[in-house]
Give the backbone structure.
Amino acid sequence: MKQPGKVASAARRAVNDPLQAALTWRAQGHVQEALAVLSVPVEFSSDFYILRGDLELELGRIREAAESYSTVIAEEPDHIYAQGQLGFCQQRLQQWAAAAQAFEAVLQFDPYRDEVRLSLADCLLRLQRFGAALECFDKCWSEASRRQALFGKAAALQCLRRFDEAEKHYERLLAVDPYAEEALANMIAMAMEVFELARVQKYSQRLLDINSRSVAACKGMALCAIERRDYPTAARYYQLVAELEPGVTTRPTEAGDAVEYRISRAVFNSLEETRRKPKARATGEPFPR
């Protein structure tokens, strides 16, 4: 509880020096009160609007923070900190093109900011500028950025359909981080795209060894079992996928006689029948024919 004397003192400081008052409130852990002190526009001061943007960001008010940083940039286009913070706000708002522009501005002044370069590369991937993203990831040099840069390069190569190169980069990442589930999931997706079942099974099994409830791995194993016409095994994985991702049990439509992973309607019906048999045994209901 705030004491009356302290509140009065804080009010006087807010009138005389709102920036210092806000810093004092923030140092005491009162972020909302600090922001309230800066809620009234004043004659332009980059420190004022930077602090206001930082406080808004701490409170999760991303759009307002972006406006505060934009105010600084409008007056001082070369303000690197404001550009970077604006870029991070726009990235969180999924404004990929604007965020990329802000990150590029930062890197023009400071080309060794790998955390900014990684964010720029992420925006370029989402803008489907895969070649530019690959080049961006490749320029990351620090040890701290190594894992994310490896994954980013592999993803960019995958999007460029340079699957062999992408696979090598994913393997390099797995050598650094054997538990990189997303890398294995992407390797399964690549193997499915070219329909190399041996690789689908290999990567699916590796992923299951890490996470026995991985949807991507179970789908991969189900696909391999279906292609072997081993429907009981396929149904076991299908059952798990149905629990983890209920939408997968939607029946194929007449307009398109196949669903993802080349499962035909006939196979789908066989899987559904096999999946329900244990339930029939448990409830005493007859098996579907």
In short: Residues 254-262, 280-289 have pLDDT under 50 and may be disordered. Residues 178-289 form a domain with the Serine Threonine Protein Phosphatase 5, Tetratricopeptide repeat fold (CATH 1.25.40).
